[in-house]
Specification:
The protein has 244 residues and is α+β, with helices and mostly antiparallel strands. The chain has 10 helices and 9 strands. The chain has a 6-stranded antiparallel β-sheet with strand order 6-5-4-9-8-7, with helices on both faces. Strands 1-3-2 form a 3-stranded antiparallel β-sheet.
């Protein structure tokens, strides 16, 4: 009875949804492998989730993607904790976006993930879309490097234990005041990230500027890095941080 109980069905559906925490789209067989559920069970549960619009099919690749109902739920998440951070950040991230017309985001730490709480998207057709409420693993991308750099050594080692990331990477992030990612989270994507500090000098968030390498890596690259660092510092000052 327990094996086929309604509770177990719910658990299986949640296990399937959790497969998308670090993947945008998956095949049925990939989900089956990740969850250790039979393809027939995965197919049955996905059909139910799809009927309720929690799961959809990418019309181009035919792979399985998250549905719009999850975005609607994410928009209802209690974010009062970040209201001050978003209020202080907004005008600054808007200016950074206006200069380069690339994606600008603010992330906060959420366990072993980075959680997007504010975003101004590029208006260009070629861009990567990350919506408010989305979470991504720390071990991929520039923003994750910043969070890991400021994390205590024991916690960081637990997060990166199954990777080949060297501690020298994090030393450079602290020294330079920013992290750079080229094709680490997604092929062809470049990201710059810089820390946002609070009045006590603690890391509270990370500012990210990102875009496709075909137009991101150019003669303005050093300006993009400098402006990202400067913008993160201005946000930090707005939160009461006093730079030395």
């Amino acid at each position: 009875m327990e094996k086929n109980s309604p509770t177990r069905s719910v658990e299986r559906a949640l296990e399937i949804l959790e497969c998308f925490l670090d993947e945008k789209e998956l095949t049925l067989s990939q989900i089956s492998d990740k969850t250790n559920l039979s393809p027939s069970t995965v197919h049955r549960i996905i059909a139910t989730l799809q009927s309720k619009h929690f799961i959809e099919r990418n019309p181009d690749t035919k792979k399985i993607i998250l549905g719009y109902k999850l975005n609607q739920l994410a928009s209802k998440l209690p974010t009062e904790t970040y209201d001050e951070l978003k209020r202080v950040s907004y005008s600054h991230i808007l200016k950074l976006h206006e200069r380069y017309n690339e994606n600008v985001r603010v992330f906060v730490l959420d366990g072993e993930y980075k959680l997007c709480i504010a975003v101004v998207e590029s208006t260009r057709s070629l861009r990567q879309i990350i919506k408010i409420g989305e979470r991504h693993l720390l071990i991929r991308g520039a923003a994750g490097k910043v969070f890991l750099a400021y994390m205590d050594a024991k916690h960081r080692n637990d997060v990166i234990k199954d990777t080949r990331i060297d501690d020298s990477v994090f030393e450079k992030v602290i020294e330079k005041g920013y992290a750079l990612s080229i094709g680490e989270r997604e092929e062809g994507l470049v990201g710059i990230a810089s820390p946002i500090m609070d009045s006590q000098g603690n890391l509270v968030a990370v500012l990210s500027l990102s875009g496709p390498s075909v137009r991101f890596v150019n003669e303005e690259m050093s300006d993009k890095i400098n402006d990202t660092v400067k913008t993160a510092l201005e946000i930090s000052k707005g939160l009461g941080y006093k730079s030395t």
